[in-house]
Amino acid sequence: MSETKPLFQPLEPAPAYKRLCQAIEAEIMAGRLKPGDQLPTETALAEAFALNRSTVREGIRLLEQSGLAERVAGRRLAVARPSTKALGRRVSQALVLHDVTFRELWQTIAALEPAAAAYAAEARTEADLLALQRNLRQSEAATSNTQQLSALDVAFHALVAEAAHNRALILAREAVGQLFYPAFAAVVTRLDTAAARLLTAHRAIVEAIERRDADEARRWMVRHIDDFHRGYCMVGLDPEAPIGRVQEEDSQ
Amino acid sequence: MSETKPLFQPLEPAPAYKRLCQAIEAEIMAGRLKPGDQLPTETALAEAFALNRSTVREGIRLLEQSGLAERVAGRRLAVARPSTKALGRRVSQALVLHDVTFRELWQTIAALEPAAAAYAAEARTEADLLALQRNLRQSEAATSNTQQLSALDVAFHALVAEAAHNRALILAREAVGQLFYPAFAAVVTRLDTAAARLLTAHRAIVEAIERRDADEARRWMVRHIDDFHRGYCMVGLDPEAPIGRVQEEDSQ
DNA sequence: CATCTTAGTTTGTCCGACAATCGGACCAAT
DNA sequence: ATTGGTCCGATTGTCGGACAAACTAAGATG
Description:
Chain A has 252 residues and is mainly alpha-helical. Chain A is built from 11 helices and 2 strands, in the order αααββαααααααα.
């Protein structure tokens, strides 16, 4: 953070493809290009920037990868907003590569989830509630299938965050939440009391959200998260060990 | 979340340049390619994947943009971990494009900062403490310069997070924290009591962290964050308005 | 041994080309 | 009129080759 500022700016013209990307990015951030707008064709861009189409293509790849542009129907390029899911995936990936430990993830989730639950109690809509109750019923029916139960738990917490109607919160916890999948599975598999405790907590949280009782929702979420930490240690897993690498299928 | 799965998958083999990126990405995530490893040259990759160099280049751009590879000395491509800073920038950018409101950002930061303060009290090293104290002194000397004070405040909170030694927490709050810069400036400029209150809080937080008093650190941070929210409303800004777009100089 | 020179590598950029595919227009059949 | 088929142009994905600039490493020189 306390970096000595580089005194002399890069000054390097930077590769053309990168400058092209930055130029378009600037247009987007300045609002002159709005999400949904179609970008010119590759040849048109090449002409406009006085570059070769090959170079333009490389620049477009950068835009594409950062989520600021995407092909609408496989064809024409259009300005887009980076999707929450794609971003979450990138962040998760980065956390894994940095060998982030369970402790770090847990501390973060322990800060976010209770807040999400509380705000969900305040801001939830009827649709949110229905989705939560549906997830609850599915979880009750899947207590024996640990794989499915883990997936449903991940989904449950995502639903709570969505009910809070806070995209910053959703994004922050999505990235961390995804990485819990394997840990959840591990605990639920080895600890036979875990499934029941999980359901009790989920039920209480949904009820609190239904009654718009923010404090109660927060309290139960805290308990639920603490419980998970206890379970994690109880089955002999080390909180200081890096969370393993997971191979999830590509969505986006 | 409750998406109806699309029955028929895209089925498309995806463009070659994208598959190349995914292939290398998979190698990295599987640990067969470790950060720091040098990747083959473009021609070598082209040969290995039976593709043209142009196509390989496009794939490399994707890797580069996702932070999984970077040019070490302007030259050879090497595997890298996505930098916290670059990732934070992307997330910030996405939040802006989604027109996230001050309320959403504040709720998120209000969940993260107190946790960061508490963990900082537990995990801080001597170096962390020194950095915090240094920032405090600089802030005390800059009460009149609102621009500088805002920057120092952003840095202060980043330092607290760093002292917590939790990279997930650091990353999560970095993305949100950056966007506060303009809001901070606005409040400090228009509210002449703000600077003094800010300093009081920072001082108390640093002292608590020094004494390793997690509860006290958390309490003061909560107060500090609440205070900011109050100030924001007091100067007549609307918490439900989207946080504006900011033009920060490119680091990365 | 240190330094300079030189040749080979590698990247950034350009040019030109072609197949596949998408969009749309135009036409035929129910 | 709606549906289905065909054709044509536009656009993208991929390829091959080319060259200057920048870097690397080896060899030559003091």
